[in-house]
UniProtKB/TrEMBL annotation, chain B:
<dbReference type="InterPro" id="IPR005670">
    <property type="entry name" value="PstB-like"/>
</dbReference>
<dbReference type="InterPro" id="IPR003439">
    <property type="entry name" value="ABC_transporter-like_ATP-bd"/>
</dbReference>
<feature type="domain" description="ABC transporter">
    <location>
        <begin position="5"/>
        <end position="248"/>
    </location>
</feature>
<dbReference type="InterPro" id="IPR017871">
    <property type="entry name" value="ABC_transporter-like_CS"/>
</dbReference>
<keyword id="KW-0547">Nucleotide-binding</keyword>
<keyword id="KW-0813">Transport</keyword>
<keyword id="KW-0067">ATP-binding</keyword>
<dbReference type="GO" id="GO:0005524">
    <property type="term" value="F:ATP binding"/>
</dbReference>
<dbReference type="InterPro" id="IPR003593">
    <property type="entry name" value="AAA+_ATPase"/>
</dbReference>
<keyword id="KW-1278">Translocase</keyword>
<protein>
    <submittedName>
        <fullName>Phosphate ABC transporter ATP-binding protein PstB</fullName>
    </submittedName>
</protein>
<dbReference type="Pfam" id="PF00005">
    <property type="entry name" value="ABC_tran"/>
</dbReference>
<dbReference type="InterPro" id="IPR027417">
    <property type="entry name" value="P-loop_NTPase"/>
</dbReference>
Length: 305, 259
């Protein structure tokens, strides 16, 4: 009796120690990365404007690619989120069980495709295929600034990159949303059905409100991936100066900029690129904090109580 | 508004499994009918066929007729959604929508029916339904707070308010007090007594005293053994079932010899 409880207590100690160690380790790694970025980025922040690429100082260099990154990620989210939620709902609440598990499996497989393959697909297949569409947009809707011509003849514009990004973040948003939707309490679904809700009304009354925090987390994870995705953008986008048009060549994202220039960089340019990385880090951090804030703001109505 | 229910030769299946066999029962309008019986005897399953809620489970279906004032709810072309908006249901565990306020919970069913109602009408309906569920005085100052912040008994009465807000013909209750403490149970039982003035109430209960207290008529369901279908053994005035049942099994059950 005493022996077993003593060993149980030792087990408790070992477990709590390991758990705490793991927690501290994560904080240390995060802190280490942040410290590295800040220290290495510092020279670029205080360098003479003429020494930075473009010759107009760090902020003039970083601003266009920050905007390019945000545009690409935002378009990707706008495309991917409704599709992902629709697919997740179909799998969790509409499809017959056998089709649902098969489809879920295929969606998960999409996540296993390496990003360089997506990039190659985007550059070799999607871009040429979509180029005529861009030409049409420029000809017919060219008066809208985002579709201003001349359209990229190769199709390697930021919109193509964003579409590739959307396909890449689709699986993560879909599979997380699906898991959340499947956890909707039967009790709440039946409450809606018993009131005379159709299946779609039941989804709106019970499933989506219950899944809201989960959907937000899933979208934020997708956004994180879209912001940081490097290879696909580097392959698909024919980069250049910041432009409002989504169908011209031009624009650039932070991650692709770092990847393309890092191998040949030297001196203060290395620091500049690391500083760009720091900015990306800060953006991602801010996005996650906003997401957390949105989730906690609605805690009272979340059903957790 | 309240309607009678006549069930003819109803068989309920889960896939190939016959869960409830050959039920014939006539439930009067504006009365309280209790279903009693041991666990697994099919009384909840049968209750759920009365508003076609059992069809929610994949593979479940029913054969036979359920006539609501003469109209078969299993007739060709009858939409289960319409049936359910006509026959309200209260569940074993209180299930207010956690993301909605008390007020929105009461209005949930009304909004489903695509009725555009003005704020004044909505306010009046919320008050009337909550009054009808004996909950108004307890929540009138916090209608915008989440329904999940109420006590279990209050949540169950909120669910009753939500069900009666759409003015259904029949109110089905599936063990509505089994998750509640005695005081809350008393509050819900008092409410059932008042509800029968306007609604046909059918209640499933495991608590025989509760059946004796609240119901006008009682139906006893039983099952011959595991894997066998549940059957309606006896249906009569509640006092007859408890004092002078005609079937041996009923007498054994109500006198506590099994179940």
């Amino acid at each position: 009796m005493t022996g077993s409880s003593a060993s149980g207590r030792a087990g408790d100690k070992v477990f709590s120690g390991t758990a705490m160690g793991a927690g501290i380790l994560i904080l240390l790694v995060l802190f280490g990365v942040a410290a590295f970025l800040v220290v290495q980025a510092f020279p670029a922040l205080v360098a003479k404007p003429a020494d930075i690429q473009g010759g107009a100082g760090f902020w003039a260099y970083i601003a266009p690619i920050v905007i390019g990154t945000l545009i690409a990620a935002a378009i990707a989210l706008v495309i991917a989120t409704p599709v992902a939620i629709g697919v997740a709902l179909f799998i969790s609440h509409y499809a017959p069980r056998r089709l649902a598990s098969g489809l879920g499996y295929v969606i998960d497989l999409l996540a296993a495709i390496p990003s360089v393959v997506y990039g190659a697909w985007g550059a070799a297949f999607l871009a040429p295929a979509i180029a005529p569409g861009y030409a049409w947009l420029a000809a017919n809707l060219g008066w809208i600034p985002i579709f201003a011509g001349p359209a990229s003849a190769t199709g390697k514009a930021i919109l193509t990159a964003a579409i590739v990004l959307a396909v890449m973040i689709l699986p993560i948003i879909t599979s997380l949303s699906r898991e959340i939707f499947l956890q909707t309490p039967k009790l709440h679904e039946e409450a809606a059905l018993a009131l005379g809700a159709t299946r779609w009304e039941m989804v709106r009354m019970a499933v989506l409100p219950f899944g809201r925090p989960g959907i937000i987390s899933a979208v934020m994870l997708g956004l994180g991936r879209a912001l940081g995705e490097t290879m696909a953008v580097a392959l698909v986008l024919s980069s250049g100066a910041l432009t409002a048009s989504l169908i011209q060549s031009g624009n650039q994202t932070i991650a692709a900029e770092i990847a393309l220039n890092f191998p040949e960089a030297s001196g203060v340019q290395v620091n500049t690129l690391i500083a760009a990385g720091l900015v990306l880090f800060v953006i991602t951090l801010a996005v996650n904090m906003v997401a957390r804030w949105i989730i906690t703001k609605h805690k009272e109505f979340s059903g957790a109580n | 508004m309240s309607k009678r229910i006549d069930v003819k030769d109803l068989n309920v299946y889960y896939g190939n499994f016959l869960a409830v066999e050959g039920v014939n029962i006539n439930i009067e309008a504006k009365s309280v009918t209790a279903f009693i019986g041991p666990s697994g005897c099919g009384k909840s399953t049968f209750l759920r066929t009365l508003n076609r809620m059992h069809e929610v489970i994949p593979g479940a279906y029913a054969k036979g007729e359920v006539l609501l004032d003469g109209a078969d709810i299993y007739g060709a072309g009858v939409d289960p959604v319409t049936v359910r908006s006509n026959i309200g249901m209260v569940f074993q565990r209180p299930n207010p929508f956690p993301t909605m306020s008390i007020r929105d919970n009461v209005l949930a069913g009304v909004k489903l029916n695509n009725k555009r109602i003005s704020k004044g009408e909505a306010d009046a309906l919320v008050e009337k339904s909550l009054q009808g569920a004996n909950l108004w005085n307890e929540v009138k100052d916090r209608l915008d707070k989440p329904g999940s912040g109420l006590s279990g008994g209050q949540q169950q009465r909120l669910c009753i308010a939500r069900a009666i807000a759409v003015e259904p013909a029949v109110l089905l209750m599936d063990e509505p007090c089994s998750a509640l403490d005695p005081i809350s149970t008393l509050a819900v039982e008092d409410l059932i007594n008042e509800l029968k003035d306007s609604y046909t109430v059918v209640i499933v209960t495991h608590n025989m005293q509760q059946a004796a207290r609240v119901s006008d008529k009682t139906a006893f369901f039983n099952i011959a053994g595991t894997g066998k279908p549940g059957k309606l053994i006896e249906f009569a005035e509640t006092s007859t079932i408890f004092n002078n049942p005609s079937q041996k099994a009923t007498e054994d059950y109500v006198s506590g010899r099994f179940g």
